[in-house]
């Protein structure tokens, strides 16, 4: 019974495919999975916009949306109808072809990453040999879409936003990839399915999630900070800082194209969060061995919603960084820490299994962390700021 | 020559041709990116996953971005460059034809590669990432280290040049 419930979507797909001739079965199988992924994550996007507005409203002592449907639950639907029926305005000076292609490319690129993310047991579109590499490769396509949007609008605000976004995404891609390398070092595989399988085993009732090791915990924190910056979310929302450059690279978009940018951004955020879950939080694996009867996909989405809630919490709590603070954090703090974490993972790998490697690896991560944080704090001298381009 | 190869080759060639033919420099870079993506797809079609994804990561994700950044930094406003004159076209065509001839001759005369080609393209050996990693870490570890040192030197050199200019401006 639990087995059937766990595999119900896989079984349903096979049952549906049984009606088709064998020649088109592989094609239809892929099509079904793609449609399911797009529908599920687009729905999750709708729910998240509601959750975010409600959550932020609660943190700012207001009610949030409460007019459409019970508790404002139908607000995403109203927003969707509104953006569909709005006039689509393209600036007269804009580069029309590129201006049109940018949101399409952004949404397409943000959905591509889901091809390798295991959503449940046996629920992955393709088990690529180089899955993690594929994920980061298609993630880099989003930078190009952002540039296209900012440049083609012929507006200084959108161009500024695009420049900021690209500088930020390139800088934080380095710690993002380096933070995930520790997991690859430990598993010895780039396949996301193999990585989750390694974590879905238990000692007693405790799971073997990588986040419960010293290097895994540090890697997870570094990965999530870099993922926040990569998805341009607060406190790293300089590319679209409302009080500075209004909406950044998509300021000149209206109607449905604006909604597409929103969609692409959230879908990208879900994808990086799902990657963090796959790499560090055990993917679809249950948190305790006695809870394995709960279907695997429910665990995946529970973890995803928990991370989304944390994102909303952070957004409601922290103020926006300045550009130099952003770059200093990436290059002076995150990059050395990821490299030290790599060393810790290597030491863990070569020390004999036992209690001894826990304090050693924890010290390798924690001592440089404290020293680095203290050193960077002392180096900061308060002086008159000089701005290079405004004198 | 399968249908997918024909389509991918057509996309690659069209992208590269557009990169040379278009007037606007940023359009050229975007067309070039299409060409890079086509080449990556061709690698994937040959079963070389690692090379294909690295092609996307490096060329589409980094080189294209670097190129547009370079264009934006050097050009204050997008200007249409005039069409090249006829002698330049002729010279360019001659150089391209010569390069193509040399490459075609090299591939054709390499009898080893022709004989080593299996009858079915499906049977081509596809190197996994693990095999590539093993080769890089065992057999080719010295070249890898030398390349790493060279790249580090280039990186530091670039930073030094950039820093020097900044002090001049102050």
Give a short synopsis of this structure.
The complex is a heterodimer of chains A (391) and B (170). Chain A has 391 residues and is mainly α. Chain A has helices at 2-6, 8-17, 25-59, 75-85, 96-112, 131-139, 141-152, 156-187, 192-199, 214-230, 242-245, 255-280, 296-317, 323-350, 357-379; strands at residues 202-203, 206-207.
Q: What does this 3D model show about the protein?
A:
The complex is a heterodimer of chains A (391) and B (170). Chain A is globular and about 65 Å long. Chain A is mainly α and 391 residues long. Chain A has 15 helices and 2 strands. In chain A, 66% of the residues lie in helices and 1% in strands. Chain A has helices at residues 2-6, 8-17, 25-59, 75-85, 96-112, 131-139, 141-152, 156-187, 192-199, 214-230, 242-245, 255-280, 296-317, 323-350, 357-379, and strands at 202-203, 206-207. The relative contact order of chain A is 0.12. The termini of chain A are far apart. In chain A, strands 1-2 form a two-stranded antiparallel ribbon. Chain B is built from 7 helices and no strands. The longest helix of chain B is centred in the last third of the chain and has 29 residues, at 141-169. The termini of chain B are far apart. Mean pLDDT of chain B is 79; it is low at 119-124. The chains are: A mainly alpha (391), B mainly alpha (170). The A-B interface holds A 95, 98, 128-130, 133-134, 136-138, 140-141, 143-144, 147-148, 151, 163, 166, 170, 173, 188-190, 386, 388 and B 24, 26-27, 30, 33, 49-50, 53-54, 56-57, 60-62, 64-65, 68-69, 72, 128-130, 166, 169-170.
């Amino acid at each position: 019974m639990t087995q059937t419930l766990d595999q119900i979507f896989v079984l349903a797909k096979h049952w549906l495919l049984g009606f088709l001739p064998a020649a088109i079965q592989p094609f239809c199988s892929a099509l079904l999975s793609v449609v399911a992924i797009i529908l599920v994550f687009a729905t999750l996007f709708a729910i998240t916009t509601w959750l975010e507005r409600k959550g932020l409203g609660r943190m700012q002592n207001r009610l949030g949306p409460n007019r459409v449907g019970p508790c404002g639950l139908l607000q995403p639907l109203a927003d969707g109808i509104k953006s569909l029926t709005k006039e689509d305005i393209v600036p007269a000076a804009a580069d029309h072809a590129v201006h049109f292609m940018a949101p399409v490319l952004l949404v397409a690129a943000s959905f591509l990453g889901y091809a390798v993310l295991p959503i449940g047991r046996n629920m992955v579109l393709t088990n690529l040999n180089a899955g993690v590499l594929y994920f980061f490769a298609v993630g880099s396509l989003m930078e190009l879409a952002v540039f296209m949007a900012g440049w083609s609008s012929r507006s200084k605000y959108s161009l500024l936003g695009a420049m900021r976004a690209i500088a930020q995404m390139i800088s934080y891609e380095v710690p993002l990839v380096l933070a995930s390398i520790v997991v690859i070092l430990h598993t010895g595989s780039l396949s996301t399915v193999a990585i989750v399988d390694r974590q879905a085993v238990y000692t007693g009732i405790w799971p073997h999630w990588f986040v419960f090791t010293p290097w895994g915990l540090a890697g997870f924190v570094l990965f999530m900070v870099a993922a926040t910056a990569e998805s341009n979310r607060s406190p790293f929302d300089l590319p679209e800082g409302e009080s500075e450059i209004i909406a950044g690279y998509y300021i000149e978009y209206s109607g449905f194209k604006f909604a597409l940018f929103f969609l692409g951004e959230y879908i990208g955020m879900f994808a990086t969060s799902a990657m963090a879950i796959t790499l560090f939080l055990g993917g679809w694996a249950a948190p305790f061995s006695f809870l394995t009867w709960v279907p695997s996909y429910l665990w995946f989405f529970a973890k995803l919603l928990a991370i989304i809630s944390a994102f909303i919490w952070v957004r409601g709590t922290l103020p926006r960084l300045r550009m130099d603070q952003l770059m200093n954090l990436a290059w002076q703090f995150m990059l050395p820490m990821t490299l030290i974490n790599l060393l810790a993972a290597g030491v863990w790998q070569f020390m004999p299994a036992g209690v001894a490697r826990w304090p050693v690896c924890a010290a390798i991560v924690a001592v440089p962390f404290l020293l680095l944080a203290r050193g960077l704090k002392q180096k900061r001298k308060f002086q008159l700021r000089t701005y290079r381009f405004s004198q | 020559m399968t249908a997918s190869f024909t389509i991918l080759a057509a996309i690659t060639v069209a992208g590269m041709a557009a990169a040379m033919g278009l007037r606007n420099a940023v359009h050229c870079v975007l067309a070039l990116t299409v060409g890079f993506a086509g080449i990556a797809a061709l690698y994937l079609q040959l079963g070389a996953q690692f090379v294909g994804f690295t092609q996307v990561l490096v060329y589409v994700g980094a080189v294209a971005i670097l190129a547009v950044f370079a264009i934006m930094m050097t050009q204050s406003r997008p200007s249409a460059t005039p069409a090249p004159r006829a002698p330049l076209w002729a010279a360019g065509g001659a150089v391209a034809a010569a390069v193509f001839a040399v490459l075609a001759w090299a591939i054709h005369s390499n009898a080893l590669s022709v004989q080593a080609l299996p009858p079915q393209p499906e049977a081509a050996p596809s190197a996994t990432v693990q095999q590539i990693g093993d080769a890089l870490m065992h057999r080719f570890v010295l070249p890898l280290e030398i390349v790493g040192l060279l790249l580090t030197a280039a990186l530091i050199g670039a930073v030094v040049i950039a820093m020097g200019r900044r002090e001049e401006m102050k």
